[in-house]
Amino acid sequence: MYVVTSKEMREMDRYTIEQIGIPALVLMENAGRAVAEEVLSYNQPALQRVAILLGKGNNGADGIVTARHLLDAGREVRLIYAVDPADLAGDAAVQRAIAEKLNIPFDIYDSDSMMHWDDFDGIIDALLGTGSRGTPRDNIASLIRAANASGLPIFAIDVPSGLNADTGAVHDPCVHATITVALGFTKRGIEQQPGAAYAGQVVVRFIGIPRDTAARVGVSTFRTNERLLTDKLHVDRHWARNANAHKGSYGHVLVAAGSRPMGGAGLLCAMAALRAGSGLVTWALPDKLLDPMLGRLPEAMLRGLPDGGLGDWREVRAEHLTELAAGKSAMVFGPGVGRWENDSHWLRKVWETTTCPLVLDADALNMISSAQDFGRWPARTAPVILTPHPGEMGRLAGKETAEVQRDRIDIARQYAERHNVTLVLKGARTVVATPEGEVFINPTGNPGMATGGTGDVLAGMTAGLLAQGMSSAQAAVLGVYLHGDAGDRAAAARRSAASLVASDILNYL
Ligand SMILES: NC(=O)C1=CN([C@@H]2O[C@H](COP(=O)(O)OP(=O)(O)OC[C@H]3O[C@@H](n4cnc5c(N)ncnc54)[C@H](O)[C@@H]3O)[C@@H](O)[C@H]2O)[C@H](O)CC1
Ligand SMILES: [K+]
Fold first, then answer.
1. Dist CA 75 CA 99 (whole Å)
2. How far is CA 92 from CA 58, 123, 135, 155, in A?
3. Which part of the chain is the YjeF N-terminal domain (predicted)?
4. At 241, is the pLDDT very low, low, confident or very high (cuts 50, 70, 90)?
5. pLDDT tens-digit profile of 339-356?
6. Has 225 been labeled as part of a binding site?
7. Does 310 score more than 80 pLDDT?
8. Across the strands, what pairs with 163?
9. Which domains are seen in the chain, by residue range?
């Protein structure tokens, strides 16, 4: 499903009106009717008396159209203008004039004392849409605060007012919506946190802008869903198992992970590669860990690497890993490996001398960050997937974590394009960016997954999917989606996100 910016939305809007010839008032009519239909189908409780809060732009105009359709369906409505109705211009003035002819009751807001929320069952937020700039001002700000305090269900038209539709950042105040009816296409701001939480349930409604207009204006951000996984990414081609299959048919993952205090990271990672469907998994680990780990994961083959008896990676030679990687269909390196002297140089050797698809996670990402010259590492023939959390992303991109979080989509996209890697920026609504500049926002997962080891599971899963012949985009997008989905089912089964642990995710794959 396409996810757009307000600029892209304006371009599509213009194309539809000017090139295709669908009049703007028709789009607006479709928009208002779509919102009314969503309000009419809401029944917890049914909204008999509806207050419609209006700004002066086209978002407000959509609100007036909504009012007409609700009236026609027998609901009571009251328009609350946040601005002087005489200030409405263009199509909004057209809608205001129609509302006057129809004698739709209205108020012009001047202070909170005039609002009697007891007179209403619900609120429609038509104050600000994609034309919103900066913090809500004046009466609009007061109305947003009052609406939030009313305790009534709020339907936001297009985006909650007070939200940055492009980044998901929220201003103070911002409407806390029950349902957001996104017009035409969903917007980046309601697909990224914290905006997504303020949008409530997002419903996307067709308003007459043809779907292929998005490709025409170059929209390259998507929300993952099962249809996208099959229709766009074609992951289903890898899915059905052949009746003649044998374990060699589904690839062989080399998991290079774990060290003495963090053996569990390797265990989770290797198990995840198996659960993702990899035919074989070899887990390479420092020699000293071999005995304690033997028997913990009977399905995997263990290979101890000479570690000078230390149980960590500082004595392990890059060449050993290169040898093991030969002939493997994918490799994951990083979970629980720790850091050691000259490890960036060591990783560069592995990068240069291995030929299979590579997933780098955790400390491997920090090695890249401290490499200084990562931008000049030679191009690999096989693809690379990096799986940073926001802190690791900040170190990779030379930015503060907060800066990364404010603009996850673009930061991930720029990094992936610039370094020719597939980048998985983890966190709520994980973002996957491809070297070609496409971005996929993941809707699955829950806060219970913010717990040790879930990243190790994701890295292993991704490698397991790569090993079965998936492209990096397929493996990363599907891996992230299934990881979140398994986490959601695990949390539901436990009836608590808080008690979810990483191995629960494995059990629900
Ligand atoms: N996408 C489409 O094809 C369609 C979209 N529709 C709706 O139109 C809005 C966008 O409308 P626009 O007129 O561009 O802007 P807004 O209604 O969002 O509001 C702009 C209006 O508000 C004032 N303003 C801006 N920022 C602030 C602020 N921080 N505080 C106070 N006031 C502010 C500014 O003066 C502007 O005049 C889109 O979201 C859809 O709902 C069409 O109706 C159908 C086609
Ligand atoms: K709105």
1. 15
2. 6, 20, 22, 20
3. 9-215
4. confident
5. 999 999 999 999 999 999
6. no
7. yes
8. 170
9. 16-215 (3.40.50.10260), 247-507 (3.40.1190.20)
DSSP per-residue string spanning 282-332: EEEEEHHHHHHHTTT-TTSEEEEE--TTSSSSTT--HHHHHHHHTT-SEEE
Ligand 1 atom, smallest distance to 61 CA: 43
Is residue 358 within 6 Å of ligand 1 at its C-beta?
no
Q: Is the pTM of this model over 0.90?
A: yes
Residue 130 Cα to ligand 1 midpoint, Å, equals 5
Three-state secondary-structure class, residue 427: coil
- Ligand 1 lined by 174 (C-beta under 6 Å): no
C-beta neighbour count of 22 within 10 angstroms: 18
The one-letter amino acid at 479 = G
Is there a binding annotation on residue 355? no
Q: What is the SS3 assignment for 18?
A: helix
How far apart (Å, rounded) are the C-alpha atoms in residues 277 and 478? 13
Annotated binding residue 426: yes
CA Rg value for the chain: 26
ipTM score for this prediction: 0.97
Tell me if 258 sits within 8 A of 335, measured CB to CB. Answer: yes
Nearest Cα residue to atom 25 of ligand 1: 132
- How remote is the C-alpha of 364 from its chain's centroid? 23
At 35-87, the pLDDT tens digits run 999 999 999 899 999 999 999 999 999 999 999 999 999 999 999 999 999 99
- Give the separation between CA 135 and CA 161, rounded to whole angstroms: 10
